Each structure stands twice: as C-alpha cells, then as structure tokens.
C-alpha cells in the first residue's frame, strides 16, 4: 500500500495518476473529501481505500504493516490566510503525527515543504539544511512549513528514509478547484479566453521592468517524476529544493500562454495591491545541485512546453489528469 495525503488535491491527485500508470493500485487516498469539485480529481483513478484525514492515525494502527511508502502532500496552502491556529493544526501538528507514525512503523516518507520558506530570498535559495533556521517566511503558511522542517531536522528519531521537498511555483492539470490559489498560468488562461488580454502586476522596483518579475515555474508532471524517483531511491535523506533551477519572467509566462492558444500576446500592467507590495517576491530560483547530486538526472520541462501541454491537453479540453 502507498499512502497519499492531499489525495483529492492538485498535486496529490496527479501523483496518484502517475502511480496508477506505473501499475500501483493499492493506493490509500487521505483527504477531507467534503469538496465535491475537488473529488473530481480522483475520478477514474485506481484507489484501494479512501480515508478521511482525521481517521488516518487510527487506520494506521490497524494497517501499518501493509504500508510500503508514505507521501504526505496534504496541507493548507493559502498564503493569504493569517489565522495561525489553522496552520498549526493542519500543517505543523498533523505533519508531526505523520512523522512520528513513519518513525514508529518504519515507513519511508516524502513530504511537501515549500519555497515559501525562503521569504524574500534574503538568504538565497540554497537547500542547505544548516541555513533553514535562519530563513524568514513572509506569511503563516511559509512559517508553518519552515517550522516543520526545523522540527523534523532536530528530531533524534527519523524515518529510515525521508525527503522534504521545497516546491517552487507548481502549475498543471487538476488545479481547477484552487480558485485564487491556482497557478498564474491557470489565471492567465481564464483572462485570455474571457477578455483577450492578460493583466500582470507592474514593477515597483527600478531594477525590474513591468512583467519582468521572475519565478521558478515547475510543471507538476516533473514534480511527480521526482517523487517517484525518491520512492525508488530511498537513500540520502534530507530536505531538497524542487524547481527547475531556471527563473522565468511573468512576461514569458504570458507570451507562452497566448502562443499555446494561437493568439497574439496582449498584456496590460496594473499596480501591485498596496497590501502585498512590501512582501511581493521579485525573484525566486531553486538551486538544484543537491537533488542532482543524488542521481536525479532527468531534464525539467521548459516553461513553453509545459504551458503548451497544460493549455492544449487539459484547460482547452477541460480534462483532468
């Protein structure tokens, strides 16, 4: 059995699809299954059992001997939520219980951290574990992810294999339900198909032109390939960046989306809202040497190719992966 938390969500459902393609059928899907729209992500997927997230640990007491691997993908990911109690419950405390279960039952673990832990990037974007305690996230979501990374590294008892993955800007199919927290590509597609134009934030810094703010955008299929590699590798425990290692501008993203639709780019620039302006990231880029050093050598999908696949094969056709 393979456990996937956040199973009905964006990344979790894509991971289950890939596991199915690799002939894994004994999937234990863990989530809050009350969102009917999100549950569409699991349609036509081979799942052995659905377990409500609040019932997971009692389920593990009875079934832990059958579990081969644990992917802890589920989390509250809203960067605009400022109720720290929500993140303490769902991201920090729940993840601690997952960790302790994997220690007690000797289950290898891959869990989702986040590039939000890097804040404004004052300390760079290197995934050196000795730097993690000095990072300064910009919101309670980032704090919760960084707090767990710090806690995990300080535990005297660890799973015999674990990997925490700092996801950078992930995009791809099955994010329909995420609303404002969906990727910029998803929002760009909605704007372009509705109005024929794309609105991007102006730059409020003299060293960046409008739309030239940069992010490390990673296609969800690449992210899943790394997860599968780590499941098979099961060596070199630690915390790893997961981006492409190449930052691209929002202008690049916009042009790629127009091109995927066969349209001439029309981009307008609007002021960055004042309430987020002082916390707005102008540049993120994962350093990927650490993951490469343990043997992951598959190339990452270019922004243009990833956007084209996502737009043409999923968004236009309104299909799930």
UniProtKB/TrEMBL annotation:
Annotated ranges, domain NAD-dependent epimerase/dehydratase: 2-243
Positions annotated to bind substrate: 169, 180, 187, 201-204, 215, 280
Cofactor dependency: NADP(+)
MF terms in GO: ADP-glyceromanno-heptose 6-epimerase activity
Co-factor binding details: Binds 1 NADP(+) per subunit.
Top enzyme class: isomerase
Pathway: Nucleotide-sugar biosynthesis; ADP-L-glycero-beta-D-manno-heptose biosynthesis; ADP-L-glycero-beta-D-manno-heptose from D-glycero-beta-D-manno-heptose 7-phosphate: step 4/4
Catalytic activity: ADP-D-glycero-beta-D-manno-heptose = ADP-L-glycero-beta-D-manno-heptose
Residues that coordinate or bind NADP(+): 10-11, 31-32, 38, 53, 73-77, 145, 170, 178
Catalytic residues of the enzyme: 141, 178
Record has Isomerase as a keyword: yes
Annotated PANTHER family: ADP-L-GLYCERO-D-MANNO-HEPTOSE-6-EPIMERASE, NUCLEOSIDE-DIPHOSPHATE-SUGAR EPIMERASE
Domains (record comment): Contains a large N-terminal NADP-binding domain, and a smaller C-terminal substrate-binding domain.
Assembly information from the UniProt record: Homopentamer.
Name of the protein this chain belongs to: ADP-L-glycero-D-manno-heptose-6-epimerase
Protein species of origin: Aquirufa novilacunae
Encoding gene per record: rfaD
């Amino acid at each position: 059995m393979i456990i996937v938390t956040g199973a009905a969500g964006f990344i979790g459902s894509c991971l289950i699809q890939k596991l199915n393609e690799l002939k894994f059928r004994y999937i234990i899907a863990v989530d809050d299954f009350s969102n009917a729209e999100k549950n569409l992500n699991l349609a036509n997927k081979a799942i052995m059992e659905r377990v409500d997230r609040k019932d997971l640990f009692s389920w593990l007491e009875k079934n832990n001997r059958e579990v081969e691997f644990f992917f802890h993908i589920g989390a509250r990911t809203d960067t605009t939520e400022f109720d720290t109690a929500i993140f303490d419950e769902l991201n920090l405390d729940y993840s601690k219980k997952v960790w302790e279960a994997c220690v007690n039952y000797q289950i290898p673990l891959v869990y989702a951290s986040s590039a939000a832990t890097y804040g404004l990037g004052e300390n760079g974007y290197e995934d050196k574990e000795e730097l993690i305690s000095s990072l300064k996230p910009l919101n309670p979501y980032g704090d919760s992810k960084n707090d767990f990374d710090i806690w995990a590294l300080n535990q005297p008892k660890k799973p015999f294999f674990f990997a925490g993955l700092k996801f950078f800007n992930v995009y791809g199919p099955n994010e329909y339900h995420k609303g404002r927290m969906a990727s910029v590509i998803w929002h760009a597609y909605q704007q372009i198909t509705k109005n024929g134009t794309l609105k991007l934030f102006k730059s409020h810094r003299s060293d960046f032109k409008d739309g030239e703010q940069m992010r490390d955008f990673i296609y969800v299929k690449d992210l899943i390939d790394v997860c599968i590699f780590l499941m098979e590798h099961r060596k070199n425990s630690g915390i790893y960046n997961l981006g492409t290692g190449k930052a691209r501008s929002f202008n690049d993203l916009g042009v790629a989306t127009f091109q995927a639709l066969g349209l001439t780019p029309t981009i307008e620039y609007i002021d960055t809202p004042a309430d987020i302006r002082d916390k707005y990231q102008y540049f993120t880029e994962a350093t990927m040497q650490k993951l490469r050093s343990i043997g992951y050598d598959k190339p990452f999908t270019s922004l243009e190719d990833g956007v084209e696949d996502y737009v043409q094969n999923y968004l236009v056709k309104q299909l799930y992966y």
